[in-house]
Amino acid sequence: MQYRLTRFGIHSTALIVGIIYFILAIICVPIFYLISRNAPNGGLPGIVLIIGPVFYGIFGYVATVIGCWLYNLIASSTGGIVFTLEQAESASV
Questions:
Q1: Interhelix angle for 48-78 vs 10-36, to 10°?
Q2: Tens digit of pLDDT per residue, the chain (93 long)?
Q3: How far apart are CA 46 and CA 30, in angstroms?
Q4: Residue 77, CB half-sphere, CA atoms under 13 Å: how many?
Q5: Domain span at residue 74?
Q6: How many Å apart are CA 25 and CA 53, to the nearest integer?
Q7: Is 63 contained in some domain?
Q8: Is residue 38 part of a domain?
């Protein structure tokens, strides 16, 4: 079966991606913070642990809004992405 993706829900898609970016930043920012503490210039300030994930989540949301808007704009004139779905075989246990 072939389907065509002609439009993204901008807010819902951006919200999911923004949350994913936030969660990834919660994992990565403390690692970068600890690594930077050994830097000769003193490393990152502690506030980065709080504002880093927030800004990263906001950046992910805004970038996704722009990306979805561009996709919707282009897909309206090109027809969107066509993809094929196959039904998976039942797993027998």
A1: 150
A2: 889 999 999 999 999 999 999 999 999 988 888 888 777 777 778 788 889 899 999 999 999 999 999 999 999 999 999 989 888 887 666
A3: 9
A4: 4
A5: 2-84
A6: 5
A7: yes
A8: yes
